[in-house]
Amino acid sequence: MQSQRSIIHLDMNAFFASVEQQANPALRGKPIAVVGSGHRTVITTASYEARSFGVKTGMAIWEGQRACPGLIIVVGDNKKYTHTSRQIIALLREYTPLVEVFSIDEAFLDVTHSSALFGPAETIAYQLKARIRHGLGLTCSIGIAPNKLLAKLASDMQKPDGLTIIPPDRVGAILEHIPIGDLCGIGKKTQRQLNLLGITTCGQLGRFPEELLRKKFGIVGPRLKQMGQGRDDGPVLPVEEEDGVKSVGHSMTLQRDVATRDEILRYLLQLSEMVGRRARRYGVTAKTVSLSIRFADFYSSVQRQTTVVSPISLSDEIFKVATSLLDSIELHQAVRLLGVSLSNLQHNQQQLSLFEEERRKSEATRAMDAVNDRFGDYSVTFGSLLQSEEKGSHVISPAWRPEGIRNVGVE
To answer: Among the three residues 198, 228, 258, which one is the final residue of a domain in this structure?
Structure first.
């Protein structure tokens, strides 16, 4: 039963900024903001010292500096963050094999059956906090509850360095006045729609007639009511038990607005190589290719996709399809962001071609992948990319995982 489960949600505090402060003692206790390596970037995260001045994730650098004149800007080191995340995940797995990596700085643990070895969930939580603090010099906030939905809610209640427990017999009382937007899974759009129905708190959502929610939200309606009641039967899924990947993609914010077709094509080729290489690494091919564009005004965007007859994974084939999608779009202004993704995936579908030219191309691609895997990205690449200003992604994908197909390489 749900009440018999003990779920922990661990959320690292200001993770990127805290890792930087731990690595550089001169930054400790100072207001810092971690940013990407591009010329035009936004604040990825800020230390709590900076947050006290109103510096927030997503702010432009100038906005952060206006809010906090003494703000120290630090260019992020993604490899440092993924290394630290792997250390934390390894620690969590000492307590239970049921560890679900939710993001690079968050994880769920099912410790229901760990009590015989380590004690109750609260004891495990205190041990984790102490070991992370003393071993890595970092703090985290932890929530303990009967399910993942409530555990994540609990971890947000006391930050930084908090520990909050939601016992099964207190769920209703605790949720009664909690804003619906605090629940993971209820975004701003859904929140606005619920507000129009007069629903602002979890208690109200849990009591709202299910048939009316179904009429408004379709099959999602009953699930929303369950969320308002604090019900969630979802298991904690280790990475090896997750559903198969549904898509492979990369996007990049360009260091400057790009208006000419030749420049856009160079970035498209780079993205096609990044996406194709990941697809080949994990033995998947795709029948659907998508192209995303955001324009210089930041607000205008467009997305196109097409389905090919035969599944593909070679970079030049992806590039050809992406180029045809680009040519179907009227570029009314310069481009700020580009993205290429593959979906409608087939696993382990690569077969040896009957045609000599295609076999040679596949063999050349495998050789190029092998060299880049051994000596680093872009050790061997397409000639037209040699003059490219950007090499790789400047951000960590939300889909990052410590292993498996979601292990997105970062620069």
So the answer is: 228
Residue 43 CA neighbour count, 13 Å, CB half: 27
Domain match, 122 and 11 both: yes
Distance of alpha carbon 334 from alpha carbon 260, whole angstroms: 8
Query: Catalytic amino acids?
Result: 106
Q: Alpha-carbon distance 122 to 100, whole Å?
A: 19
Q: What secondary structure letter does DSSP report for 245?
A: P
The Cα–Cα gap between 275 and 292 comes to 14
Same-domain check for residues 145 and 189: no
Side by side, the strands of the sheet bearing 99-103 are: 99-103, 106-110, 7-12, 140-145, 163-165
Q: Is the pLDDT of residue 335 over 80?
A: yes
Q: What mean pLDDT comes out for the span 314-329?
A: 93
Rg (CA), the chain: 24
Domain holding 12, by residue range, is: 1-166
Q: Are residues 83 and 14 in the same domain?
A: yes
The model's pTM = 0.68
